[in-house]
Amino acid sequence: MTIIKLLSKDTGSNITLGLLALVTILVPACNLLLPETSIFHVSSYTMALLGKYLCYALLAISVDLIWGYMGILSLGHGAFFALGGYAMGMYLMRQIGSRGVYGNPLLPDFMVFLNWEQLPWFWHGFQWFWFAMLMVVLIPALLALVFGWLAFRSRVTGVYLSIMTQALTYALLLAFFRNEMGFGGNNGLTDFKDILGFSLQSDATRAGLFIASGLALGLGYLSCLYITRSRLGKVCTAIRDQEDRTRFIGYRVENVKLWIFTFSAILAGIAGALYVPQVGIINPNEFSPLGSIEIVIWVAVGGRATLYGAVAGALMVNYSKSYLTAAMPDAWLFALGALFVLVTLLLPRGVTGLLRKKEHVI
Amino acid sequence: MKTKILAAMLGCALSIGSVLGGQAMAAETIKVGVLHSLSGTMAISETTLKDTMLMLIEEQNKKGGLLGKQLEAVVIDPASDWPLFAEKARELIEKKHVASVFGCWTSVSRKSVLPVFEELNSLLFYPVQYEGEESSKNVFYTGAAPNQQAIPAVDYLMNDMNVKRWVLAGTDYVYPRTTNKILAAYLKSKGVADADIMINYTPFGHSDWQSIVSDIKKFGTEGKKTAVVSTINGDANVPFYKELGNQGISSDTIPVVAFSVGEEELSGIDTKPLVGHLAAWNYFMSVDSEANDAFIESWQKFIKSDKRVTNDPMEAHYIGFNMWIKAVEKAGTTDSDAVQKAIIGVTVPNLSGGYSAMMPNHHITKPVLIGEIQEDGQFEIVWQTAGKVAGDAWSDYLEGSKDLISDWRSPLSCGNFNVKTGSCSGNK
Amino acid sequence: MHIFLRVLHFKLFIPALLLTLFFSQSAFCLQTEKETQFTEGIGHLLHGNFKEKALATKQVADSGDSRAKSILQAMLEGKLYRVKKDDTLVYAEIKSAQAKISSALTGEQLGFVKKRKLKKITINNKLRSSLKASLARIDLASPSSTTRLQAVNKLIKNLTPRDSLLLAELLQKETDNKVRKALATATAIAKLKTDDTTQILAAISDLSGNLNPAVRNELMTLLGKSKDDAVRAKAESALASIASSISFYGFIEKLFFGLSLGSVLVLAAIGLAITFGVIGVINMAHGELIMLGAYTTYVIQQLLPNSIGIALILSIPAAFIVSGVTGIIIERSVIRFLYGRPLETLLATFGISLILQQTVRSIFSPLNRSVATPSWMSGSIQINPILSLTTNRITILIFSMLVFAGLYLLLRKSSIGLQVRAVSQNRAMARAMGVKAARVDALTFGLGSGIAGIAGVALAQLTNVGPNLGQAYIIDSFMVVVFGGVGNLWGTLIGGLTLGVANKFIEPWAGAVLAKILILVFIILFIQKRPQGLFPQKGRAAE
After folding, report:
1. Tens of pLDDT, residues C325-372
2. How far is CA C111 from CA C81, C82, C104, C146, in A?
3. Which residues have C-beta within 8 Å of that of residue A259, sequence separation ≥ 6?
4. Does C365 touch chain B (CB under 8 A)?
């Protein structure tokens, strides 16, 4: 009931969710059911690629929720994404069990070969799927909660906050690079075998993960939509536009910010967790500050403050990245750079803003 | 209006689908994938290898191609982004239908693509020295394993230069960690005390070496002859050597032997303060052989500059590519399984005047050379192994791997066979 | 008569002849022995392997031949070659494919030959140190006092008890104070190695407070092997005083390292402090402007390959102009449309940074470029045997302070500086007073960018010149500016230096990586406590 109410009068969201549902059903079906010779067959490569895009789209929504609707520009959202990814990666590592190259039933390969004696305490529990999933949610949430509590309470705002989030992800990047941390250092976690007993190499598992990503994106989209339409969402927009006035009216601005920020971090963590089994590796580079800026760029390109804009932006930028790296490897940075400059200069409301403007005129 | 947006979005989605899905295989050529980063942090090293592959393929085509067909290079840029390596590898194999792939530089990129090659049963030739501890059915390691670089270098320092104290300095990632672990174990087995080994790790791109070099200096003035074994990676080397020079550490007081500094890296360094420091490789541009002269000449002609240098990973690609050609000719097909079977035992000339052979563990035999840096950025070869050294996938000096062997010939056909338990764990 | 005379003459002549013959023969004998040693040595140099070459250098050095020194010197410098065809030993100056050669034995000029016709007489490290030792022995008698000092210092490293006599002899003849001091140290160390307890005790007193590392090592060995309690006690107290000096100078050294790291941070951040602090623009392309400065240094050095020092000094204004003009272009074409939207500026400039990086990569290739260091910037200043400060770091520290002072004066004392401050503090009011805000914005941005270019010149002396140079410094620069307080140059200076020093004091016990992480965490926490940084901006613009 609420869903219908949410979606009424929101063409963009209707289309996005409609297409999403279509893709979530059709792509796995075309991959699994149609023979490879059929022109409608979707290759595993394409499915994995699209699955990755769906995770990125969820990540983009999480950034859009706090930036587009609340004016907090996080340049460190990659950190939450990566933490979710690491939690999932640790589960997948534990699932390898004695099938690693050294055949050690407990220790992952990288620990054996760096002479670790025993499993570090923080690796315990990750053999259970439910525990790992709990961590996927809890770890990013906890970090966001602590960081947000400190930052929002002392009213760090604007560019300062952006730079602090950047420092946060940079510190984590350096920390995860350290081999002493016990997360595989630069190589990260890789060579996963299976998830919940299903082989990650099989198309059926991939299709399952694809559907899961589609569902996660759909649910994430709806929940963000719900938040932005609720009273809370109105307060968020008020904070974005006039933080001080909102505070004077009597809203606890820092609390609102904190909860939304934490929720956004959880979404990013879930996106990361779904991303890892589909690409097969998680390593510290996901923490890189440049990566986090890229996420913001997706949202800006698509159009901030509209959820479907964030989704569209993530898809467009990543698709052009995939395409350009193959088509003109020497020049794709030029194209990407120019895209960012032009969009911010000429399309402040993003690409979807173009469509909306016309809609307004008509 | 709704329909308009819908149409636009559908059109967009369809065009994505068609580009991603289409592209039939072009007939009459054999495609060779080149998977080296052309942008991002690794572009500095990998771009040269891409050009090397293009040159080798061009030359092979001039000789009449392979199996009567022309070779076609498919170049893709994984942009120094490790998950992207896996995605691009899948694209090369599944969509471009390449017969084999030559690529990767860092260990993490190889680890990232490894499952893809195993799943799709394709071939990867990996041209860079690495930490060992791996042997995959689908990967051929044409660079040096630790026993083909690190251990001979330490032997040289110990025996010929009477080094008694050791600084093992490296960038904090898997290759230095493993190499230093192996070296520390090896040194201890030779009777070096713990107090005479100093191990230091720094982050990638570390640029402020003041304190560390000062520590090395202090460590080195405590009476015994000291040497630095450097596994410092890429960008961090320039400031490291500059600081050494400025703090007055020269090659005759504390020599540095590096495993990641080659001709190409030296071309970006002012070499004056470096003269006399050492490097251990399996090939130097200064090697005196006809094959090498011809290789250098065709490389400089191809790249249209007589200033460009050649280096060890280029030789590895040279060897790997020729091995693949020979194996495909032997098998009469580019089919992965047939080539895997055919390539073991294949012997091709290397650039240092000898021959390299593909071993059953998918590593190759190579001579080990030690060179001293000269002022012109070249290496003067001061020592080399008497014969060739076969690459060892599993180190004898590490606890977890000393019982493991790798042999991809049937009936064993296993990358990590434990001789103690008599079982093959992991990949088969 | 005539005949008689002739006979007499003849009679006298023969013994004279014999005598002369005899003498010349014996002299000749000695001569030939040395000569043969020399020629034999030369022969081995031409064709021997490294082991034979090592022997050969000894032979050549001991032959006392006047040509020995220059030959060994040339060998050390890699200028000694042999002509492949006829095995003449020559000095060669290589100029691209041609070489100008002259005979090493006769000094005869042999004109130009093709480089390929020559083969270098190569050396390895072992040979290099034995060459240096041979040359040092020759140098002990050198007329130059610095050469003698170096020779003595080399000798200190491997003394034997017997050397004390030789040293005493040298000490008597020596007039130069520094050399005398070194010789005295050497004599005392040589005495430490004797078995005579009184001599040892005297030597320990002589050596107390001496910071030469050889002294410490010798005292340690003495402590290890001596059974005499008096000697042990004295050695221990001498070592303790040395240890306290070492820790004191270690502190000074760390402080210097910290200041020098800090000065690099200040240099990299100060341009950002202007663009970010004064006009509120987050310039993600700041790192790339630094990179442009570094590449400018490289290009100018390519244009003036023979005068590196002048090229370096010329690069400072050149880099300022290149980066400054690029900055102004960026400001005029992109940023001015985005004022008041700091977050969008961030995105647009990030796009610009990608473009700049790829441009440089296309023009100069992704490979690092080599920038040479002029001789006056290499090496170090030796304060005492355990403390030396590297010249390039000192130069950069001073340079960074000069840039800071210049910038500070410009902003405080000039009319354009006044306008910049006016616009940054209250834009509307400044415009009302007739300040052309748009022009000031462009100039300020150009100034900040130009300073980034100058930072690039300095960084080119320390690290790689490559397309990724900028990325390595951008986050650190942001941290410095935010920590110091936006819009406050003093803040940037103090902030940068503090962070540098803190980093260097944490590094020894935490390691380089952890030190950096701790600093970042500290800044994050610090900003929560003081959101405006160390030195908050005052006035209306603050909110």
Report:
1. 999 999 999 988 887 787 788 888 989 998 998 899 888 877 788 888
2. 14, 14, 13, 35
3. none
4. yes
Cβ distance C342 to A334 less than 8 Å, yes or no, reads: no
The answer to whether residue B43 neighbours chain C at the CB level (below 8 Å) is yes
Give all strands (DSSP E) within B385-420, no chain letters.
Answer: 389-390, 404-407, 414-418
Which of C 343-362 lie inside 8 A of B, CB atoms? 358, 361
Q: Which residue of A has its CA nearest to B86?
A: A279
Domain count, chain A: 1
> Are A160 and C482 inside 8 Å of each other by CB?
yes
Q: Please give the biggest Cα pair distance in chain A.
A: 69
DSSP state for residue C34 in the 8-state scheme: H
B243, B269, B382 ranked by CB distance to C370: nearest: B269
* Together in a domain, C210 and C269: no
> How many domains are contained in chain C?
2
Mutate to test the interface with A, among C272, C332, C475, C479 (most CBs of A within 10 A): C475
Residues C158 and C275 in one domain: no
Counts of helices then strands in chain A (DSSP H, E) = 15, 4
User: For the domain with range B150-258, which CATH number is right: 3.40.50.2300, 3.40.50.970, 3.40.50.2000, 2.60.40.3080?
Assistant: 3.40.50.2300
Mean pLDDT for each consecutive 10-residue tract of chain C (543 residues)? 49 50 51 75 78 80 76 81 82 76 81 78 76 72 75 70 70 79 81 80 81 81 80 86 88 93 93 81 90 95 89 95 95 87 83 91 83 85 84 93 94 89 82 87 92 94 86 88 85 93 90 88 88 71 42
Contact of A44 with chain B, judged by CB distance below 8 Å, is answered with yes
In order of A141, A203, A280, B319, C118, the CA distances from A135 in angstroms are 9, 27, 19, 47, 69
In a domain, C64, yes or no: no
**Which chains have 3+ CB pairs within 8 A of C?**
A, B
Range of the domain at C178: 140-227
pLDDT, one tens digit per residue, over A69-112 is 998 999 999 999 999 999 999 999 999 888 887 778 888 888 88
Mean pLDDT of A172-194: 88
The residue range of the domain holding A132 is: 2-361
**Could you tell me if residue C241 is inside a domain?**
no
Q: Do residues C207 and C351 share a domain? A: no
C432 and C532 co-located in one domain: yes
- AA letter at A29: A
The dihedral of CA A191, A195, A201, A205: what is its sign?
Answer: negative
C437 is a domain residue:
yes
ipTM of the complex in this document: 0.88
Q: Please indicate if any CB of chain C lies within 8 Å of the CB of A245.
A: no
- How many residues does the structure list for chain A? 362
For chain C, say whether B59 makes contact (Cβ under 8 Å): no
- The reply to whether residue B210 touches residue C465, judged by beta carbons under 8 angstroms, is no
Average pLDDT over residues A315-332: 80
The chains in contact with chain A, meaning 3 or more Cβ pairs closer than 8 Å, are B, C
pLDDT of residue B21: 41
Q: B264: which chain C residues are within 8 Å (Cβ-Cβ)?
A: 367
Higher pLDDT pick, B265 / B234: B265
- To the nearest whole Å, the CA of B347 is away from the closest chain A CA by 28
Where in chain B are the domains? 150-258
Average pLDDT over every residue of B310-331: 95
Give me the residue from A103, A185, A358 closest to B172, CB to CB. Answer: A185
Which of A242-246, B104-108, C216-220 bottoms out in mean pLDDT, i.e. has the lowest?
A: C216-220
Of C343, C354, C513, the CB nearest to A73: C343
Which tens digit of pLDDT belongs to each residue from A289-305?
888 988 998 998 888 88
Asked, for residue C8, whether it belongs to a domain, the answer is no
Residue B73: phi and psi, rounded to 5, are: -80, 135
- Taking the Cβ of residue B305 and every Cβ of chain C, the question of whether any pair is shorter than 8 Å is answered with no
Cβ(C406)–Cβ(C415) below 8 Å: no
Do C221 and C257 fall into the same domain? no
Nearest CA-CA distance, residue C265 and chain B, Å:
11
- Using the beta-carbon criterion (under 8 Å), do A12 and B5 form an inter-chain contact? yes
Structure tokens given for B313: 């990973």
Tell which residue, A164, A292, A75, has the closest CA to residue C482. A164
Q: Are C104 and C67 in contact (CB under 8 A)?
A: yes
Domain boundary among C195, C227, C259: C227
Q: Is residue B209 predicted with pLDDT exceeding 50?
A: yes
C295 and C342 inside one domain: yes
